[in-house]
Amino acid sequence: MREVDVAGVEAGTGLVGDRYGGGSGKRGITLIQAEHLPVIAALSGHASLAPSLLRRNLLVEGIPLAALKGHRFRIGDVLLEGTGDCDPCSRMEKALGAGGYNAMRGMGGLCARVLEGGTLRLGDAVEWVAA
């Protein structure tokens, strides 16, 4: 995992250079809410957490990701569709320590399908797209 300020995104695939790109179209990009980080940290016994530890592609704030499930939205010029919850996996036990998996339950974020590729930039707004 590495943090970048700009990333290319391909329709039907995901982030350019992502080793998981090209897999399930429903999980082209994964997102997590910044507001959940302090809660996950507290539940897993940490003072704070680096977002990269949680292995999601994008960190967003100011919008509840659950509201985007089943809906289209834009980030920058990239069109996405929320496909479902991004449930934690067993790797969270290694990343966060014992109890890491349970600390993330219900706060693992959102999976999204990439409908139109483009470029994502740090600070791009998340915008709802009417159907």
Number of helical stretches of at least 4 residues? 3
Mean pLDDT: 91
User: What's the SSE pattern?
Assistant: EEEHEEEHHEEE
Shape: globular
Q: Characterize the main sheet.
A: 6 strands, mixed
CATH architecture: Beta Barrel
| Proportion in helices | 10-25%
Structure description:
- With 131 residues, the chain is an alpha+beta fold.
- It has one domain (6-129): M1 Pyruvate Kinase, Domain 3 (Beta Barrel), CATH 2.40.33.20.
- The protein contains three helices and nine strands.
- The strands form two sheets. It has a six-stranded mixed beta sheet, with no helix packed on it. A three-stranded antiparallel beta sheet has the order 2-1-8, with no helix packed on it.
- The longest helix has 7 residues, at 37-43.
- The mean pLDDT is 91.
Name its key features.
alpha+beta; M1 Pyruvate Kinase, Domain 3; 3 helices; 32% strand
